[in-house]
């Protein structure tokens, strides 16, 4: 059977060579961030959007959460607001690491995308990032026109935060969330699925990386049992509709798909798709990977469905 994405191998070899050996050779978070920033070079020509602005959301107990808003080139009728939570294992990443993805999503959906620069671990372990996500959600709801639907989205650790935010708002009767987009989410602190064994080495993000991320995020080992951390252990009834994306070569593949099945078993309207032959984080490489461009179109269509918006043609 021919390789569906022949452009993956060269990029994967490049990333395997350059990405820091987190959890083994590199165990300091600041050093990991420096190395990650050097690897994630800015896009030469960022996708143009109508405007990029920054504001802050107030936390419950003092302090603020930085937000970056991407206004689309053309707005869809009835467009939602997308609250985006970046990946990076709760340790890495921020506005700049996911800037291009947010730009493409804004134009592809015809909606404002609000990125959240939440506090990072280990300096700010669980539940700091989730608290910041909740503050951002309240801010977006309070500052949007009445009736605006909100879709939460995130990749990897950001996918964990997006789903945890849906759980939190359900449990605390918080602002209504119209839908959740979860890109290869982290859903189980156990790190023991078969895909951890099959894809644990050689595919960019390794099992060692992921276990190190968990060790940085959790102040106490017992926090791993929280339903807002290990999402597979939660009661998922009453959550908003979801779309889940997984990657065939990802250590997180099985737990992402298990979460999608659990959502369906709980009566949640859920769709999911596995992209075979690609690795964790592939959506962040649209300039290099056809699979990322294909996923972008699928993701935008899924978010429009989640928000109940008619199809929007990207301008």
Q: What topology emerges from the helices and strands here?
A:
Blueprint: H1 8-18, H2 29-39, E1 51-58, E2 64-71, E3 81-85, H3 99-109, E4 112-116, H4 128-143, E5 150-155, H5 157-171, E6 179-183, H6 194-198, H7 207-217, E7 242-247, H8 253-265, E8 270-275, H9 290-307
Parallel strand pairs: 3-4, 3-5, 5-6, 6-7, 7-8
Antiparallel strand pairs: 1-2, 2-4
Helix pairs in contact: 3-9, 4-5
Please tell me about this protein's structure.
With 315 residues, this protein is of the alpha/beta class. It has a single domain (8-307), classed as Alpha/Beta hydrolase fold, catalytic domain (Rossmann fold, 3-Layer(aba) Sandwich). 35% of the residues lie in helices and 16% in strands. It contains 9 helices and 8 strands. The chain has helices at 8-18, 29-39, 99-109, 128-143, 157-171, 194-198, 207-217, 253-265, 290-307; strands at 51-58, 64-71, 81-85, 112-116, 150-155, 179-183, 242-247, 270-275. The protein has an 8-stranded mixed beta sheet with strand order 1-2-4-3-5-6-7-8, sandwiched between helices. The radius of gyration is 18 Å and the shape is globular. The two termini are 36 Å apart. The model has no long low-confidence stretch (mean pLDDT 94).
């Amino acid at each position: 059977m021919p390789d569906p994405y022949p452009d993956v191998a060269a990029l994967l070899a490049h990333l395997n060579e350059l990405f820091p050996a987190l959890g083994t050779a590199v165990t300091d978070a600041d050093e990991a961030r420096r190395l990650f920033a050097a690897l994630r070079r800015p896009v030469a020509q960022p996708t143009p959007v109508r405007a990029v602005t920054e504001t802050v959301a107030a936390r419950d107990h003092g302090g603020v959460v930085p937000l970056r808003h991407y206004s689309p080139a053309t707005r869809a009728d009835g467009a939602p607001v997308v609250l985006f939570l970046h990946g990076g294992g709760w340790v890495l990443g921020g506005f700049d690491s996911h800037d291009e993805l947010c730009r493409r999503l804004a134009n592809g959906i015809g909606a404002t995308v609000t990125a959240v620069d939440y506090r990072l671990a280990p300096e700010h372990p669980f539940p700091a990032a989730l608290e910041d996500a909740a503050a951002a959600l309240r801010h977006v709801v309070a500052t949007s026109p009445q009736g605006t639907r909100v879709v939460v989205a995130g990749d990897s650790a950001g996918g964990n935060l997006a789903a945890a935010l849906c759980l939190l708002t359900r449990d605390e009767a918080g602002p209504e969330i119209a839908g959740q987009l979860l890109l290869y989410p982290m859903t189980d602190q156990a790190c023991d699925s078969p895909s951890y064994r099959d894809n644990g080495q050689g595919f960019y993000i390794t099992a060692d990386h992921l276990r190190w991320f968990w060790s940085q995020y959790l102040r106490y080992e017992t926090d791993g049992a929280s339903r807002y951390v290990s999402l597979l252990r939660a009661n998922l009834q009453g959550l908003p509709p979801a779309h889940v994306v997984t990657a065939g070569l990802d250590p997180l593949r099985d737990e992402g798909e298990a979460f999608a099945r659990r959502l369906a078993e709980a009566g949640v309207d859920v769709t999911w798709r596995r992209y075979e032959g690609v690795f964790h984080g592939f959506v962040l490489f649209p300039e290099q990977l056809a699979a990322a461009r294909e996923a972008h179109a699928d993701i935008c269509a899924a978010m429009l469905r989640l928000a109940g918006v008619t199809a929007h043609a990207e301008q």
